[in-house]
Design brief:
single chain; 141 residues; mainly beta; Immunoglobulin-like; five-stranded antiparallel beta sheet; three-stranded mixed beta sheet; globular
Length: 141
Amino acid sequence: MRTLFLLMTALLFRTIASNGTLTVTILDLKNNQGRVSVALYNKEAAFPKSPDKAVKILFAPIRDKKSIVVFDSLPPGEYAISVYHDENNNGKMDTNFFGIPKEGVGASNDARGHLGPPHYKDAKFNFSGGIQTISIHIIYL
């Protein structure tokens, strides 16, 4: 019984120890209105148009035209991040008649779309656990 307990404890510790903290700094916001929505994805098919399939979505306030979110206990893996500046705080990215965002947008690796949103392959990055920080610059179309 003691051996089983030690094995279970070692497995739990290894799982907890391998998870890490990803800090995302969002820069170049044009004002301090509303909040920032930051969606973390680990699947190409979901990025960035299926927020319901994101691993996690965090909302953060804006101060001095920047925002910071922290994903705690994140397992190592491949991820991509999609961000939008929810200026009017309505919980969705507002677009015009053609589907072009009216609010600021951004993605990890500062990936930019061409006639549409950025591709997962351009926004993806590896998270190895531990502590990692990335920055994303917002653009307004």
